[in-house]
Amino acid sequence: MIGTGEEGRMGSLSGKVAIVAGAGAKVGIGAAVARLLAQRGASVVVADLNFDGASAICSEIEAAGGRALALRLDIADEASVAAMVRDSVSAFGGIDFIHVNAADTSIRRQDTDAVSVPLEVFDQTIAVGLRGHLLCSRYAIPELLKRGGGGICYTSSDASMTSMPHYVSYVVSKAGLNGLMRHVATRWGKENIRANAVAPGLVLTDTVERDHTEKSKADLLAITRSPRLGMPEDIAAMVAYLASDDAQWVNGQVLSVNGGQYMH
């Protein structure tokens, strides 16, 4: 039930358990989401292939008075995904929300077009960016149902709706992810499962700072209706809303958080 007091209006997550799958980068969307969910009262599982990074985020949360658990996650491996969900339930008694935010950025420069992309790059991108999200859904949904329902948020991209002349594997994985999200919302919506995707614009994460020049960032800012580029905290605010009971009637949506770079 949507809260009628101050906590309900403020999107409190007190008593909820959330998994953030892909939260090991210090300046990244997943880490910002984990921090904010914990600030709003959730017990948070910080999962990432980079276990040291996940542990550092977990330590930050605990130092601020929150509850968190760091887990190593290889989202392309089914046993690892199953273990993440199992260990989360064991630690906190169940789960209410999962944010799936994983991507393999190490091969982005090799992700060209449909004619020239190496098939191993395409396969790896799909394994992490789409198949891995399916695996997270497969293991999380039964646990959400045990709690009477809950939420799933996937990190998509505006590229899934606009496309690009390059990054074919990335674009296909994100377009497929939108389809997965709508399937989950359609199949389990009546059982109180909410599935949505957040589509960030250019967000100044560690990866973006590494891969973009000052000129490319300036060019993107020039076509953005806002006076600045995005920060991980901008995306975290949307994900935290979707995790809260205030978003009970938001289901099956791709929500663009891009400063007006693209308009739909």
Overview of this protein structure:
With 264 residues, the protein is of the alpha/beta class. The chain has a single domain, classed as NAD(P)-binding Rossmann-like Domain (Rossmann fold, 3-Layer(aba) Sandwich). Helix content is 47%, strand content 15%. It is built from ten helices and seven strands. The chain has helices at 6-9, 29-39, 51-63, 78-92, 119-146, 159-162, 168-188, 206-211, 214-222, 232-243; strands at residues 17-21, 43-48, 67-72, 97-100, 150-155, 193-200, 254-257. A seven-stranded parallel sheet has the order 3-2-1-4-5-6-7, with helices on both faces. The protein starts with 5 loop residues before the first helix and ends in a 7-residue tail after the last strand. The model is unreliable at 1-9 (pLDDT under 50). GO terms for molecular function: oxidoreductase activity. It holds the Pfam family adh_short_C2. Belongs to the short-chain dehydrogenases/reductases (SDR) family.
Set down the secondary structure blueprint.
Elements lengths: L5 H4 L7 E5 L7 H11 L3 E6 L2 H13 L3 E6 L5 H15 L4 E4 L18 H28 L3 E6 L3 H4 L5 H21 L4 E8 L5 H6 L2 H9 L9 H12 L10 E4 L7
Parallel strand pairs: 1-2, 1-4, 2-3, 4-5, 5-6, 6-7
Q: What is the number of helical segments per DSSP (H or I, 4+ residues)?
A: 10
SSE series? HEHEHEHEHEHHEHHHE
Residue share in β-strands:
5-15%
Widest sheet, order of strands? 3-2-1-4-5-6-7
Low-confidence stretches: 1-9
Structural classification: alpha/beta
**What is the makeup of the main sheet?**
7 strands, parallel
Q: Give the tally of β-strands.
A: 7
Number of domains: 1
Which whole number gives the mean pLDDT?
Answer: 93
State the separation between the terminal residues, measured CA to CA: 30 Å
Outline: globular
CATH architecture level-2 label: 3-Layer(aba) Sandwich
